[in-house]
Amino acid sequence: MTQVVTQRLREAILNGDLKPGKRIRQEAVAHDLGVSRLPVREALRHLESEGLVVIRPNSGARVAVLDFEEYVEIYKIRERLEALALSESILRMTDEQQQVAARLATEIEPLTDDPIAWLEADRSFHLACYAGLPTPRLLHMIQGFWNTTQHYRRILLTTFTEEDFACYHAEHRLIVNAILTGNTRAGEELIRVHIERPRLRLSTHRELFDR
Fold this sequence. Notes:
This protein is mainly α. It folds into two domains: 1-63, Orthogonal Bundle (Arc Repressor Mutant, subunit A); 68-208, GntR ligand-binding domain-like (Four Helix Bundle (Hemerythrin (Met), subunit A), Up-down Bundle). The chain is 70% helix and 5% strand. The protein contains nine helices and three strands. The chain has a three-stranded antiparallel sheet. Strand 2 and strand 3 (60-63) form a beta hairpin. It is globular. Keywords: DNA-binding, Transcription, Transcription regulation. It comes from Actinomadura mexicana. InterPro entries: GntR_C, TF_FadR/GntR_C, Tscrpt_reg_HTH_GntR, WH-like_DNA-bd_sf, WH_DNA-bd_sf. Residues 1-66 form the HTH gntR-type domain. GO terms for molecular function: DNA binding; DNA-binding transcription factor activity.
């Protein structure tokens, strides 16, 4: 039951139904899902470990909030962390894992009219690129950073033009090419620039953090 509650809350946060700063009342969640408060409490602790929820004594749980400086810091960390992850993954990916990444890079391209679907596909593509990592620790760290920035990625997407989407898709294809050719150096630089781009883009839209 805890897994069900965790998944429902995770989806609500990542899809934007529960926005940053929103208080999550255990009794309300338990009532809505028809469960006791125990699995809700356990689910919130799990989501806190994923970076989606902040739990404070005497004030309960709230959806995690980032200010602009925290967002920039996380993206700078991601630029380096995911470059390392991709390099390590490229060296170990199986043919099947490579083909999954290539397929996901193609499947995302027709989804530009559906922001939620595009974001989900983008996340799936990037995580597929790290499928060759030998241990889960690095991937867990990356997933945590993706979770805490999901709301701001969703807002940033509202500023995208057709040219922006085309640029992102082209970069995805270049990353896939680096994977297929085993070019770790190219992969590192491509993913760094790919992550740097939204950081710089949002730096010109600081007003979006007020949403």
